[in-house]
What does this fold into?
Amino acid sequence: QVQLVESGGGLVQAGGSLRLSCASSGRPFTYYAMGWFRQAPGKEREFVAAISWTNTSIYYTDSVKGRFTISRDNAKNTVLLQMNSLKPEDTAVYCCAARQGGPRTGGYKYDYWGQGTQVTVSS
It folds into this structure.
């Protein structure tokens, strides 16, 4: 089993920044691809970013390219999502997820999920 706990969410004004963190425990963090997903009220869950365990493959959804950066520290069992130039439409609950194998954009491909952290961007 892999346990994931997110932190770093909060309320920020448009144009501001937040850094989300996802801490993993349980099975070794290495060899798991990690993803960030978000879900806004009344909307379906949406892929945000994903990273391979080697840091060599990284994917972003188009709406966050150039603004968000995903990274991981395998020694600390942590994956980060640096979010800059935030917009009101980025408001959502952000969850991290883990899967064995390569990173994927489909949430159904992931085996383990955190509870999520709320990000609210005011206009």
